[in-house]
């Protein structure tokens, strides 16, 4: 006859099944900071960005290609129609021309892409194009004169020399 196995083992302790694993640490371990690093030297400044809040908005990323200004205008007109704006032929042509001018100017800055932003409020459309390219001088007045001649309510440009990029924008009335 076989001798029964002692379930308690030699020391009278039975192991838990399955064995317990230790709980994960509460906070991840912070990697050591580089020598001589201060909080100020570790901060990274954000790139030029658009912030449109409390209104309908849409945005698109466009590559640097010759067909992109016309594509940008189709995006803007299509989105405005989707938002319920019924533009007459003259107003649609004006918004198309403004979008093409702003996008073409942003593409001349170079780089691989530009971003197009559109927002509406009080029957006006904000068309904003960012070039994301650093090191350019401020825009001359010629572009603003061309955009103003197309009948926009307001327009402007600004350049961020430190982080790069130019913003070009126009505010167009959507009602006649």
Brief overview:
The protein is an alpha+beta fold. 27% of the residues lie in helices and 21% in strands. Strands 1-2-3-5-4 form a five-stranded antiparallel sheet, covered by helices on one side.
Give the tags.
176 residues; alpha+beta; Heat Shock Protein 90; five-stranded antiparallel sheet; 27% helix
Please give a structural write-up.
- The model has no long low-confidence stretch (mean pLDDT 79).
- With 176 residues, the protein is α+β, with helices and mostly antiparallel strands.
- The protein is 27% helix and 21% strand.
- It is built from 4 helices and 5 strands.
- It has a 5-stranded antiparallel sheet, with helices on one face.
- Strand 4 and strand 5 form a beta hairpin.
- Helix 2 crosses helix 3.
- It has a domain of 117 residues: Heat Shock Protein 90 (2-Layer Sandwich).
Mean pLDDT: 79
Number of strands: 5
* Helix and strand sequence: HEHHEEHEE
Per DSSP, what share of the residues sits in E-state strands of 2 or more residues?
Answer: 15-25%
Outline the secondary-structure elements.
Elements: H1 39-42, E1 57-63, H2 68-82, H3 89-107, E2 113-121, E3 124-130, H4 141-149, E4 154-159, E5 166-173
Antiparallel strand pairs: 1-2, 2-3, 3-5, 4-5
Region (Disordered): 1-38
């Amino acid at each position: 006859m076989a001798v029964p196995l002692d379930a308690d083992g030699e020391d009278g302790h039975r192991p838990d099944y399955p064995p317990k694993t230790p709980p994960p640490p509460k906070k991840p371990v912070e990697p050591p900071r580089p020598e001589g690093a201060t909080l100020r030297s570790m901060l990274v400044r954000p790139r030029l960005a658009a912030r449109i809040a409390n209104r309908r908005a849409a945005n698109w990323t466009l590559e640097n290609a010759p067909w992109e200004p016309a594509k940008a205008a189709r995006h803007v007109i299509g989105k405005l129609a989707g938002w319920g704006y019924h533009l007459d032929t003259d107003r649609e042509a004006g918004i198309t021309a403004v979008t093409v001018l702003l996008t073409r100017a942003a593409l001349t800055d170079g780089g691989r892409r530009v971003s197009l932003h559109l927002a509406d409020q009080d029957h006006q459309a904000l068309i904003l194009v960012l070039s994301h390219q650093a090191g350019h001088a401020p825009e001359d007045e010629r572009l603003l004169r061309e955009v103003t001649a197309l009948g926009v309510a307001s327009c402007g440009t600004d350049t961020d020399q430190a982080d790069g990029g130019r913003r070009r924008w126009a505010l167009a009335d959507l009602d006649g």
